[in-house]
Amino acid sequence: MKDVLIQYMKRFSDLSESELKKLTVDVPVASFKKGTILLHQGDIPDECYFVLKGCVRQYGVDENGNEHTYNFFTEEQSVTIFNLHTTDKASPYSLSCLEDCTLVVGDLSTEQENYDMNPVLEMMTRKMIEEDMGAMRDDFSSFISSTPEERYQALMEKRPGLIDRVPQYQLASYLGIKPESLSRIKKRSASHLRIVD
User: Fold this and answer.
1) pLDDT at 162
2) CB burial class (10 A; 0-12, 13-18, 19+) of residue 91?
3) 23: domain range?
4) What is the CATH number of the domain that holds 102?
């Protein structure tokens, strides 16, 4: 299962496969059942994750009790709540497993210690974070300037498998629309594909 992690790390390092295997020998991997809450909104995060298998949902509940889905993390994606800039360090989000998951589990309290022992790991992590942040910025920019239909089409192009892996109401929340609007968009999209075929 760690092969997924090693393949991902190759994108950010010139290390050989055997060197990367040595780096990941002591990396903790854990399995979590569908429905497991990895982090509750309001708690202080003490772990970060990397998805080897499964799907993790990031969501929050607003002051009116409405639930909002902010992201889905699937294979080869890291899951970290960046909140060190906040006063109380509490997470504004919850994280839950939408499927049975196999995750690399990182201890945030020993992060610097691990970097001191493996400087190459710190460099790789920085590159990974830069890529993640760049993608998030681009996604956010296109999200706020696009129509719901365009958001759906972009999702189908970038992450087509997600449609069949997550409940429709969560997918609609992620796209910033109502479930019935998503149903209409999906129908229009399907009929358009039939016309094109």
Assistant:
1) 92
2) buried
3) 2-118
4) 2.60.120.10
